[in-house]
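Sequence in, structure out.
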Amino acid sequence: MNLKQGLGVLSRYLILVLLALPNLFLFYFIFTPLTIYPVFIALKSFGAVMLSQSLINLNGVLIELIPACIAGAAYYFLLVLNLTTPMPSNKRVKSIIFLFASFLVLNVIRILLFTWLLLSGFQYFNLAHKATWYFGSTLLLIIIWFANVYLFKIKEIPVYSDFMALFKETRVKRKKRLAKKKKRL
């Protein structure tokens, strides 16, 4: 691993730390309107009225899209997987766009589906909502990541591939130093 590659690895991990520091603010700032407005536009034809940036009134039923609905942490997790996986820059950009767009579309569909379940009086709404929150969201992220791996033919493993490249580099340098020491003796 040369200096440029080493700085690339360091910068990818530094970006992740910096994005996480302000409590994932950037993800919520970007994806809150990108989630809420498509949901509102889809529900508007059924008489929905937006009461605030996160509250929609649909025929007397209040639907509040809280930060957990926006799922900023899920976008961050997908970015973590992407940035901790070695790949060329152009593939990385396409991968991030695919990951974020896929999750955004599926998240909007999920919100609309649960709105429909709520309005139709589905008896197990709370159970379905909690099960989707705890298990379905994890499964969804795994499916999106593996679809990304398949589509972009990613062969490396997040974190592990970086670690192994650094480990091999350190090992090679150590062997070279030992060989130099032996020559001197």
